[in-house]
Design brief:
four-stranded antiparallel β-sheet; 10 strands; 65% strand
Amino acid sequence: MYAIVRAGGRQEKVAVDDVLTVDKLAGEVGSTVTFPAVLVVDGDKVVSSKADLAKYEVTGEILGAVKGPKINIMHYRSKTGYKRRMGHRQPYTQVKITGIKAGK
């Protein structure tokens, strides 16, 4: 069984025990987080209607914070002697998917 969930403005395909890297989430390490499901596939059965998806729940456990790759930014203007170098590392949160359940 797998599901497609909405996480941080993107859609991600997840299954149980997958480790997912999403945009930074508020919460402590070990706390649980719930993702809204966009599509659920269970064997040959595909669930995509809003009424049926409201019954499913995708939960995960926060593993910790990580940083993305360094992005180097260089500002330069010719003939003026202006140079400026900056860098950026985007903060992310790693989440382990613990369950896809048809609850409610």
